[in-house]
Amino acid sequence: MGLKSNLHNLKEKYKGTKMAPAFNALHTFLYLPNETTHGGTHIKVADDLKRTMNIVIMALVPCLIFGMFNAGYQHYMALGEIDAANGFLGASFWTWDNLVIGLWKVLPLVVVSYGVGLAVEFLFAVIKGHEVEEGYLVTGMLVPLIVPVDIPLWMLAVSVVFGVVIGKEVFGGTGMNILNPALTIRAFLFFAYPTWMSGDKVWVHGAVERDQMIAAGENLDAISGETILGSYAQNNSVVYDYWDMFWGIIPGSVGETSKFLIIIGAAFLIFTKIGSWRIIFSTLIGALVMGLIFNGVVDAGWIGESSKFYGLMSVPFWQHLIIGSILFGAVYMATDPVTAAQTNKGKWIYGFLIGFISILIRVFNPAYPEGVFLAILLMNVFAPTIDHYVVQGNVKKRMKRIKVKTA
Amino acid sequence: MGILSKKDANLILDPLADNNPITIQVLGICSALAITAELEASIVMSISVLFVMGVGNVVISLIRNIIPSKIRIIVQLVVVATLVIIVDLVLKAFAYELSKTLSVFVGLIITNCIIMGRFEAFALGNGVWRSFLDGIGNALGYAAILIIVGFFRELLGSGTLLGIPVLGDPIEKTGLYATGYENNGFMLLSPMALIVVGIIIWVQRSKNKALIED
To answer: Which residues of A touch B182 (CB under 8 A)?
Structure first.
């Protein structure tokens, strides 16, 4: 007996009982159902929810794999055991040793994220008596990519429960949520356990451990894995060049460092028409405009070098796109079709404001070294309002046209 | 309840559950968010509101027939303000540290919607005894929610209850902290109080479907 028939039998056995949705989901996740429809003509749509989600996951896989190598690379670099990679194809980057560390640290994050998240989804499906929705597939992949590599697994589990329940299920499940669940999870982590989500110790595997060993009296060098934004916010000099930032060979959350791979993912999403190019581009434009404004302020001499904002304000505007996670947010988070604005004009406004506010938070609030997730959550809340006014504006315009004609 | 008729008993029991001022009438949310980070503050706030509501309802009920209806809000405000000042001064005299934690929120009991709401809706139209019971009942309903929220926020946010460490020492890493557990800083921020209140509302309404309005 194969797995498929086993699952099918299970499904038949539990048909009509409370547990039915759980077994249905298991079966349809892995196989096509045995049942076929009878009578009449049916239209088959290829791009259902599952297909859409799978395409996003495909776009994320390169970031995940790169994140694994980068986790190991940053670890060994910080220990001083390997040479700098100097570029995307650097010999010391794509090594087994790096990958082993990456697998060891990142795979558990993926497993916990999916395990806990899907458990909550299954539980709610069983309680509420509806089919399991695939909404968690993408969230589950995004979550490990936007957390620091050393985050304790139980914290991740608690946050996932919170994010899925409060961010999604209370609003009625997949498709009904106001906030992006992955970002809700990150926001919860950030505010609940700030020591694990910011600072210069959490971005490189082993840095916290090393700190504790030094505190215990061992004679070791401390590891510092400050992110580029952290350096700028403290007016320190940045040790990475632009190409490092572009290729992503820098400390940061697991999957958001490589701008190169994110751009490839973005191209894939735009090509398959899954991600909205309007949102992606308007977010980047918003960020650039805010960056230009800050550059203008610095150029006009309104702010001195002694100001604590000088470091980030004087960053050349285009560089805001390759530091921090604005690109990752724009491509994978802001474009979430459920929480984004739905109208085309609304998408431009929504995206622009995300970029604009992200850079605003980035510069003015050093306590939140990366404001992208807050900006996106904020605009998630406003997306329905934006849509409302866009639609109303259109209605008004057309009413006017009628009046002019009839007058 | 021997001393109370069934109707009178309901005045106290209803606000505790099916007509709770916070979770059903959704009044008095601001103070529930602001002062529930510690259980002790929640309890003191609850007692203060209990006093103000009980006495206030009685006073308003006593003078209800001589208050000109055009200026009744002002009269109500004067009554609450007087009582709140008494509470504030008592706290400052006997529990100074606590009064600093509660800071302006004791003063803001004046603006607590529950109190004005009960004056308007009940004390102005009912006798002294029933008004007293109504005030006590609503204050207890308010207290119940405050204490539940305060309990979870202090336990999960600081690992203490009434200031006593119950989960071990977070710095020395004893007790639960030895396993890697950490306090949840989000619990100490006001948004989490809103979410905890939301969860209480959720639990309450899924237990009693009659409470769900469209």
So the answer is: 152, 155, 193, 195-196
